[in-house]
Amino acid sequence: MKLFYESVYELIVATSTRLPNDVRRAISKAKAMESAGTRSAMSLSTITENIMMADENISPICQDTGLPTFKIKVPVGANQIEMKCDIKRAIAQATKDSKLRPNSVDSLTGGNTGDNLGDGLPVIKFEQWENDYIDVRLILKGGGCENKNIQYSLPCELEGLGKAGRDLDGIRKCILHSVYQAQGQGCSAGFIGVGIGGDRSSGYELAKEQLFRSVEDVNPIEQLHELEKYIMKHSNTLGIGTMGFGGETTLLGCKIGAMHRIPASFFVSVAYNCWAYRRLGAAIHAEDGSIREWFYQEGDTVTFDRNPEEHTEADKKEIVLRAPLSEEEIRGLKVGDVVKIHGMMYTGRDAIHKHLSSNEAPVDLNGQILYHCGPVMMKDEAGSWHVKAAGPTTSIREEPYQGDIMKKFGVRAVIGKGGMGQKTLKALQEHGGVYLNAIGGAAQYYADCIKGVKGVDFMEFGVPEAMWHLEVDGFTAVVTMDSHGSSLHQDIEQTSLEKLAACKEPVFL
Ligand SMILES: O=C(O)C[C@H](O)C(=O)O
Ligand code: SF4
């Protein structure tokens, strides 16, 4: 299989940079549903612009490579040991080429291996079959949406929906609830794979297996087909919308599978995938390892309009920010304002928030902007760093630290996605701070605004966790939490809960 390594490398690069056609069609439909000029329409046009930029730049759609997972079906007699070696080599090479972010972290020491290899990484699952070719599928499922996966054990009590029993209607309630609880934090609008039955691990396995189905297929089991249709329709009445900004489309796809269970256990497992649904596959000749067919790419490649007019409406209201920011400037901002940032910002995510909570900062952060982001970086031969992808990460993980850090160092603005909680909202009020929401997954779009890397601290935390000093020009974000106690996230959570409660009455009897 001389060409297997090349084929896998090609699959990895394509999966990371080129969104599949079935996913594009779903996003395209969602875009057509939103009214021009709304926050959702604006976010969706950033998302589609980002997809086009990733195509052109052959660069990661989202900075988060996620957990690379391969599912491979092989003819009897194929050498799985050699295939595994080729896959690992291709993953390491794609990381070196900045097509993947180094994402493999030692759980005990926190060290990043730098090449996406490690104990249990990448995930490679083989299965034998009696066909004469190899079926290789890959999914790069990001961390933010992975954190929104949820598993229910029936019977249970669900907020908004009441009791969920051990029947199809109880399952319906769990799935609707899973969409509600994700809000915008998994970069909605999302896709869900659902596994009914099994145990805690095989249930999740089945849920993830559903993510390898085409968005457009029809479930052959009539009951599940009806349930999928119901979930699609009603999830899209919740009003969570793109990035949790409100809007018509909250869910882009729902695929449900069922397996047997044991009498005492009744699990409903949900795997949530963000809009940056990076999964591709190929049929590979078993003799020489060359690609004979791509999967999920039926039809002509779906491209998107660059619609500049969608931005024009918002552009008029944009407020320019340049650090250092004064308290007065920040107190002048309110939820819904669109800001355009020029000048410096500093990245900081999980490791840095923990570190800063009990240590001094390496730079003066007074009046500065902190960006929750773990970028994909490339070092050129002269030793200079370049940003290859740089979208926001989920901010809620920093909730225990954020308010205290803003006060301690005088940080005036944080940028992230998905919003933050009560503790941060209170700190924004007391200190005079603002939370700015960027569009999750739009890693090419934001990388394009970054004009220079002025320095880096904490490289020992690894590339995604280091503090990158970035100079930006025209970085756009929306104020979603302000210093007057308003939070768009809190409002959407409340209104979507009311809409969820409208689905309380039994449907599948
Ligand atoms: O690790 C990241 O860059 C982001 C993550 O995928 C997230 O959604 O929070
Ligand atoms: S940042 Fe958003 S789009 Fe990217 S992997 Fe995380 S959840 Fe997905």
How are the elements arranged and paired?
Elements: H1 4-17, H2 21-33, H3 39-57, E1 67-75, H4 80-96, E2 123-129, E3 133-141, H5 143-146, E4 150-153, E5 156-158, E6 162-164, H6 168-182, E7 190-196, H7 200-210, H8 222-235, E8 251-258, E9 267-273, E10 278-285, E11 291-295, H9 308-315, E12 319-322, H10 327-331, E13 338-347, H11 350-356, E14 369-371, E15 376-379, E16 385-389, H12 399-409, E17 413-416, H13 422-431, E18 434-437, H14 443-447, E19 450-457, E20 467-481, H15 488-501
Helix pairs in contact: 1-4, 2-3, 6-8, 12-13
InterPro entries: Fe-S_hydro-lyase_TtdA-typ_cat, Fe-S_hydro-lyase_TtdB-typ_cat, Fe-S_hydroAse_TtdB_cat_sf, Fe_dep_fumarate_hydratase
GO molecular function: 4 iron, 4 sulfur cluster binding; fumarate hydratase activity; metal ion binding
EC number: 4.2.1.2
CATH architecture heading of the largest domain: Alpha-Beta Barrel
Predict the CATH topology of the largest domain.
fumarase
Rg calc: 23 Å
Q: Numbering strands along the chain, what is their spatial order in the largest sheet?
A: 2-1-3-10-11
Number of helical segments with 4 or more residues: 15
CATH domain class name of the largest domain: Alpha Beta
Q: What is the domain total for the residues?
A: 3
What is the approximate shape? globular
Helix content: 25-40%
- The SS-based structural class is alpha/beta
Number of strands: 20
The main pleated sheet reads as:
5 strands, mixed
Bound molecules: (2S)-2-hydroxybutanedioic acid, iron/sulfur cluster
Mean pLDDT: 96
